[in-house]
Design brief:
The chain is mainly α. The chain has one domain (4-409). 63% of the residues lie in helices and 3% in strands. The chain has 16 helices and six strands. The longest helix is centred in the N-terminal third of the chain and has 25 residues, at 4-28.
């Protein structure tokens, strides 16, 4: 650790931030039970301290993402534990721990770019397996696998795999092949096919809200491939790609189910008991919460369906106020912007960061703008904040990828052995 004072200061900052939120819960919460409050405090502050010691075993150039991740995860534990009453939300607390563990998995998975690039075909296979699992085990046109004690959303695990697939194709941009008078990089065709198949599957599963996230990941990777040295994409190719995207979007809207088109064009105030119910209630809650909120557990939105996931931004605004809700958004944006603070040291890791940031930003925008009725309601979760095990795990994996991009492993160059000098005898070359 190059700067132990910076590490200690970061630890204290996160600890004080969580302690301040807990003090707010104690004084402004509704009918706070002392025992439940103590359990919540022990869980949050205990996780902080344990994670500080665990991170000491990882020698990294920077811990920016790790501290931001811990900050936002325990903030979400406090939020979720106050909806409808102050008590530790054990389910969400466990998924936050899973997210922290998953971040270590993502960190080790992509830290060595040479190793992961040698496994890129296995990444494609894993995406195919996930798609097969969705078709075979989620039921008729569904997206969830119900195990009884928990549900799993396999499509969430495709997101980090697609990010890796885009990043591992970067070095192939110089390997063009002549086909029908066109210079083609076959991996670009493969990636486009994989992304198109994933989006079609999401449409088939009636999960149209996730399609923009997958499209954003692919678009980020595509832009980085355009910028790659000697890639030389022609203007015709770029115009054709843009036209294809617009046509696909138009066809998707035209073929969308009736309930989706109803959401696209609904006036929520004319249908407050139907398609506009959640958004209208969310807007009312945001307005009533104001800048500083009603106080933890003092809202009504916890009685509305999906208050802890799809409209969680509005629920936080109601109880904690718009100021705290926006601060939470800023923390997530700082996680996404961390590659600007500590730039990646390879083009592979730069592409990896672009895909992760695109996924986080689009997901958050869809949730917040949908809750505020600025765009049609999609039901997409906010990373690290919304309730959901699959989403929390995959978000953790992608956060670990950002950490790896700022702490990469590069193979050391072997030093050339000095050549032996020929022996000289009698002052003349032998």
């Amino acid at each position: 650790m190059s700067n132990p004072f910076s590490y200690i200061f970061s630890c204290l900052f996160v600890l004080i931030a969580h302690a301040g939120m807990l003090v707010n819960v104690f004084f402004n919460g509704k009918e706070v039970d002392t025992k439940e409050f103590v359990i919540l405090c022990a869980a949050v502050l205990g996780l902080d301290i344990i994670y500080y010691f665990v991170m000491l075993f990882y020698k990294q150039h920077t811990y920016t993402v790790d501290f931001m991740l811990l900050l936002v995860l325990n903030m979400s534990v406090i939020f979720q534990s106050c909806f409808g009453g102050v008590h530790l939300s054990m389910k969400h607390y466990i998924t936050c721990i899973v997210s922290l563990i998953a971040s270590r998995v993502g960190y080790h998975l992509v830290r060595d770019h040479r190793w992961i690039q040698s496994k890129k075909k296995y990444v494609w296979v894993c995406i195919g397996i996930m798609m097969g699992v969705i078709v075979l085990f989620t039921g008729s046109r569904s997206m969830w696998i119900d195990l009884g004690f928990m549900t799993i959303q396999p499509s969430e695990f495709i997101k980090p795999l697609l990010v890796i697939a885009c990043a591992t194709s970067i070095t192939e941009q110089q390997n063009k092949h002549k086909f029908l008078q066109f210079n083609i990089v076959w991996e670009n065709i493969i990636l486009f096919g994989i992304t198109a198949a994933v989006c079609l599957l999401q449409w088939w599963c009636r999960d149209l809200g996730s399609i923009p996230t997958f499209a954003a990941i692919y678009a980020a990777g595509f832009l980085l491939r355009i910028c790659y040295p000697k890639a030389k994409f022609s203007n015709k190719t770029l115009i054709g790609a843009g036209a294809a995207v617009l046509i696909a979007a138009g066809i998707g809207i035209y073929l969308a189910p009736d309930y989706v088109r109803a959401r696209l064009f609904v006036n929520i105030w004319d249908d407050t008991t139907g398609n506009g119910y959640q958004q209208s209630q969310a807007l009312i809650a945001i307005a009533e919460g104001g800048w500083l909120g009603k106080g933890p557990s003092n809202g009504f939105l916890h009685e509305v369906f999906a208050y802890e996931s799809d409209i969680v931004f509005a629920t936080i605004c109601e109880e904690w106020g718009l100021v705290i809700a926006l601060m939470t958004v800023v923390v997530i944006l700082l996680i996404a912007a961390s590659p600007l603070i500590n730039p990646p040291l390879s083009y592979f890791h730069g592409t990896l960061c672009a895909g992760v940031c695109a996924a986080f930003t689009v997901q958050m925008a869809l949730n917040i703008f949908g809750s505020c009725n600025l765009i049609p309601f999609t039901g997409v979760t906010i990373p690290f904040i919304s309730m959901g095990g699959s989403s929390m795990a995959t978000s953790g994996i992608m956060a670990g990828m950002l950490t790896a991009a700022q702490n990469p492993v590069f193979a050391k160059m072997k030093s050339a052995k000095p050549k032996k000098q020929k022996k000289v005898t009698g002052g003349q070359p032998a």
